[in-house]
Amino acid sequence: MYQSYAIADCRPRERFDSFRALVNDVFCPMEIDSQRMVRDAFEARVDAVDLGNVKLVRVSTNPLQVRRRPQDIAHISASPYLVKFQLKGESLWSQRGRQVHARPGDFVIASTAEPYSLTFCGDYEMPVMVVPEAIMRRLTPDPDQFLGQRMAAEEADCGLLSSFVAQVVARMNQLSEPMVRRIEANVLDLLGAVLSARAKPGSLTREQLLAQVKVYIQEHMHDRGLGPATIAAAFGISTRSVHMLFETEPMTVGRYIRAQRIAACRRTLESQELAHAS
Known about the structure:
globular, alpha+beta
């Protein structure tokens, strides 16, 4: 579902306060500061699309500084990860004592469970992907290792992900519901591939690999060719290894895929969108 927030409809001197309250609601509580001269004529645009489990929010404003403080962290129970894509302008981001200078095409990963600061010295545009902690940890067992790292636009896989996100936000108000679901699967697939390529050496436990495989199945159940062979290719393991992962599970991998597809069909049939149908 697409939503555009009408900050521009507020009176100029009320826009900054409206934006600050909106950010706390859409993302999480944080301190936002701006120069007085900018506040009096503050310009901002915020729109978002709910992809399913993940939300993608495009933010563009005048120069400002954002700080996630310890007292802000205490106000929420869930702490999602924020994947921040620098589409226009530049920013300085700091977490865990590491500072990143992000330029157009770069992206960074921030944990809302820890303090961080973000400074925009000029006007900017930044799509932000809000990823629940459980999903991020299924993409990579240790997402915190990427905090304070610049995912550079000049690196092929990072640039591909940034370009894909830029294309999505450019058309976010035109996307159909079936397309939105596929986009979430694709963007998480790309993000997972980027993180896997940069993860610190160390093998996953069986439980961690099984959890990642189940997430992959959820995100690709619409693909007709989904099966042990495609899963094995995606994870760089043998087909036999995929079958072995499910040996202690209640279902084989084939039955698990079928069960997830049936459950998805049921959710669709029970949705409000089909309430009028016989």
